[in-house]
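Objective 1b: paired records.
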Amino acid sequence: MALNLDALGKTIGPLTKPYGWKDAVLYALGVGAGFEDLDYCYEKRLKVLPSFSIAAVFDFLAHVGAAADITLAGVLHGEQELIFHNPIPAAGTLTTTGRITHYYDKGRDRGALVVAESETSHDSGQRLFTSRATLFARLDGGFGGPNAPKNKVPFPDRAPDQVVKAAPSKNQPLLYRLSGDFFALHVDPAFAAMAGFEKPIMHGLCTHGFACRALIDSLVPGAPEKVRRMACRFSRPLYPGTPIETLVWKTAEGQALWKTVDAESGVEVITNGVFEYGPIPSAAPAPAGAADVQSKSFSNSDNEDQNP
């Protein structure tokens, strides 16, 4: 099935999502939080994990996939960037509006990339976050479009400053999907086999949530409201029950690089990680335009496999 190139630039939304403290807590539990992270799990002193923003844009990403006519059996989440303008309140209604900004062609046998940008605000009037997502359409390449620009993040040639270990359970996807990511690849063995996997795989965005917790604990412990930006590339699939390590390099004041690896094999499952943190200024910057998205968007054109 050919991608629908006519969807480029057309507005998607506004999409609204009411949520309450139980939704924020369910998400936190889905990405491994527990008694050691009680602020994310207890309504009387609740702080919302910044990566909960992903749960707010599941519907938007589904609309992107449908608008682009991506072949469902081949879709994976390739890259994700989040820019935070204000902390996410514990309850309310979120409104998201966005568009497809780029199509990139990796070749007939290597798939395509669909890049989308969205803005989400709270019913209080606060602008909360900007999302820039890249969907990897493994079965939809060869339409004659340009290849993505390469942008490999250079990591320091030294040991990481922090290594945070975690052990997602074999049932982690069953809990995480209750936050709204119901894609069958993570629960249905027959669908996973059709997509080329031996069994259902972890949501890449679930692993992303584990990494977000690790980064906060390492760099701004107890202060998720100080997270400013989190970006990464999903590079390899991970099976449920596989232990992981998030490696963190502090590179400057308020800046760090990170990656998440399969702790058993050492294979990188999330790469090109960028993390920025510190007090949010009173005047948040305006969202980037399409040209800026192209210049900043990480390319995964040199990766064959992608973790959703």
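Objective 1b, second protein:
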Amino acid sequence: MIAHLIKHFEGILVLDADALFFVPEYIELIYDRKFPLVLTPHLGEMGQLIGESADYVNQKRFDVAEGYVQDHRLHLVLKGPNTIVAIPNGFITVNESGNAGLAKGGSGDVLTGIITALAARQPLQIALSTAVFMHGYTADLLLKDGASIDGMVPSDIINGLSKAYKLFEA
């Protein structure tokens, strides 16, 4: 299924979680892809993509992100503290929103949902950077409103998105 999507889907394709494990196997299909491809690995998944440890990726985050994007001509959201968004033209953004409440299973799924929603309406680089910021900003608002880092769950992020977006509508 992943190979079919990479080869035939004529739109922005976002690969996250288990789909990332197939990327090395289908790298030739990725090189031939005519439409944008976005990978959203956390440090451990990025390490697996490049054959290194999560610690190595963490120590060389910018070099890893920039090199991987340039080598593979794709868009990358390298999740973690200060998530990095890197795109093929060399543009890199670093997100400063968010907190450790996001370091839970399912939080990345919420981010992927935000990315796909925004990518349907905005230029891709703007969608990626905005999604990463709003994901983190929502977690920051939850903390400010009394949520605990340990008690924060992905559904809290989903439920808090409306308030975060509302602050930017004024």
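The chain has a mean pLDDT of 96. The radius of gyration is 16 Å.
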